[in-house]
Design a protein that fits this description.
The chain is built from 14 helices and 26 strands. By secondary structure, the chain is an alpha/beta fold. The strands form five sheets. Strands 1, 2, 8, 9, 10, 11, 17 and 18 form an eight-stranded mixed β-sheet that branches. Helix 1 packs parallel to helix 4. The termini are far apart.
């Protein structure tokens, strides 16, 4: 598909609202999110089609919740290995850490594995729902020029050079992002000296049910189950080994035999990777945004590479949609980096620390590590903390102009997703919300009765949903739902929750307040007033 003008005027640039560079999982998810908002989107991908390679392998609850938001979760559900036991063992098979993940507060499995080509296929097929979204394979963005009103992209196509004009561009073009280079943004951080061989294989009746990190100084390795007959093995490259030797089939079979016996298997993919811990200095340059690996590269030990990119898409897409609809000023887009970058840096550090547990090849260092964990595991509190996955931080965003200024631990948390009932069967709370919809949520109280008149007008203009759980609906705009979710009840009690304002990305912006106007809604009041939508002062 060669870009052309929507009006059919030959030779004129194609005009879209958002150009997405890269059709990997992050670019495709961003396109689905924008498509649901009716935004005109063009996805540019230099390759002739989806890569079809199982690169990322781990998901988290936020990623699954995002698939639900774009109404594609049912299409991926059967291809998930949900909540596998995760263990770190030493060379003697003694457990250093063990975690049992389960369905948590957010309505989905907290951790598991998937097959990336399936994810990408579902996301691509999902775009067929939106007449406003187009995907152009075999089209490479070769340059860009910005002005105060938009971005002009030069595109190499099978038919020759073309031009695309967009209000905004989102670069999802990977760790070596040419777009990041073109806008003059540096990655800051470090690169691991160690390299790893990654092997994806089909193994009939393999019996691998756990994710196992074997912290053996002779050669650290990882084993993960994937959907169907697939297994992934990862082996650290040792000093003196060449990549060529390590990738030979006979070397791989010898390594697998040593790690897992001698199963018969078919190699699907093999690659040697260098891991990075780097974050972009700037995530926005004018009207160009970086997302996914273009914005950050992290070690794989916490399984947050692709998941981090999905969080970028979730954070950025609803803001772009609000600006392009005229519901908010361009300035809210500056909150993207403010909210996401500190969280990413924290996750990079968590991944680095996990890598420090896994990768020692010095026997003395490994023995010291084993001794430390032997002492730590004497504590039931430590074992419980690890068992529930406490080493990975809970979903959160950093405070910004789109969160309350109040010092409140609740603000910036992801809102739970309990199972609720409208009287006929039970459903996750998100089923009652649109993808880009704000939520005023009351617990035992009608939320419409505990917001100011100005905020009520703004939320109505934004199309917000009003829901009360286990309380009466005293206002016509409010829906009453039942909820007997124990984990949610405990969360409500811990936070003394009465009413909260939840953003379209499902993060808590503020507690509801009937007395004063919420500062988080101020940008939307200004924009709505500017577009002649009546908002109470």
């Amino acid at each position: 598909m060669t870009p052309k003008d929507n009006s059919g005027n030959a030779g004129r640039p194609l005009a879209v609202e958002v150009a997405i560079i890269g059709a990997g999982p992050v670019g495709l998810m961003t396109a689905n999110l924008l498509g649901l908002a009716g935004i005109r989107v063009l996805v540019l991908e230099r390759n002739a089609g989806l890569l079809g390679l199982p690169r990322a392998i781990a998901y988290d609850a936020e990623t699954l919740r995002l698939f639900s938001q774009v109404d594609l979760f049912d299409d991926i559900a059967l291809g998930l290995i949900q909540d596998p036991h995760v263990r770190h063992v030493n060379a003697r098979k003694v457990t250093l850490m063990a975690a049992d993940f389960s369905r948590g507060l957010f309505g989905h499995s907290s951790l598991g594995t998937f097959y990336q080509p399936d994810f990408e296929r579902v996301l691509l097929q999902g775009l067929a729902r939106f007449p406003s979204v187009r995907v152009a394979f075999g089209h490479e963005a070769t340059n860009l020029i910005q002005n105060p009103n938009g971005v002009t992209l030069a595109v190499a196509t099978p038919a020759g050079a073309a031009t695309v004009e967009a209000d905004y561009a989102v670069a999802c073009d990977g760790g070596a992002s040419p777009t990041r280079e073109r806008v003059g943004v540096r990655l800051v951080g470090s690169t691991y000296s160690e390299r790893w061989l990654v092997v994806d294989a089909n193994v009939k009746n393999h019996g691998v049910k756990h994710i196992t990190f074997t912290c053996d100084p002779r050669r650290p390795r990882v084993e993960l189950p994937a959907v169907g007959d697939r297994v992934r093995w990862e082996f650290m490259q040792l000093p003196g080994e060449s990549e060529e030797t390590l990738k030979r089939d006979e070397t791989i079979r010898a390594l697998v035999a040593e790690a897992a016996g001698a199963p018969s298997f078919e190699i699907e993919r093999k690659a040697v990777y260098t891991f990075h811990a780097r974050v972009a200095e700037h995530w926005r340059r004018g009207r160009v945004f970086l997302a996914g690996d273009a914005a950050h590269l992290m070690p794989p030990f916490a399984g947050q590479g692709m998941n981090g990119g999905m969080k970028d898409a979730s954070n950025l897409a609803w803001k772009l949609a609000a600006v392009l609809r005229g519901l908010a000023p361009d300035a809210i887009l500056d909150t993207y980096q403010v909210e996401r970058a500190p969280v990413v840096r924290k996750m990079v550090e968590v991944s680095r620390r996990l890598g420090a547990v896994i990768m020692p090849t010095n026997r003395i260092a490994a023995a010291a590590r084993d001794s430390i964990f032997a002492c730590l595991n004497l504590s039931s509190r430590f074992r419980a903390f690890i068992r529930r996955g406490g080493i990975v931080p809970a979903p959160a965003i950093r405070r910004s102009d789109l969160t309350s200024r109040e010092r409140d631990a609740l603000v910036g948390q992801m809102a739970p997703q309990p199972t609720v009932s409208a009287g006929q069967g039970a459903s996750p709370l998100d089923r009652f919300l649109g993808c880009h919809q704000w939520l005023a949520l009351g617990v035992g109280v009608d939320p419409a009765t505990i917001v100011s008149a100005r905020d009520l007008a703004i939320l109505d203009a934004l199309g917000a949903r009003f829901i009360t759980l286990n309380g009466p609906a005293k206002n016509a705009r409010t829906q009453s739902l039942g909820c007997d979710d124990r984990a949610f009840a405990e969360w409500v009690q811990r936070g003394a929750v009465k009413g909260v304002l939840v953003r379209p990305d499902r993060f808590i912006a503020a507690r509801l307040d009937p007395v004063k106007d919420l500062d988080v809604l101020a940008p939307f009041a200004a924009a709505l007033t500017a577009t002649d939508i009546r908002v109470a002062a």
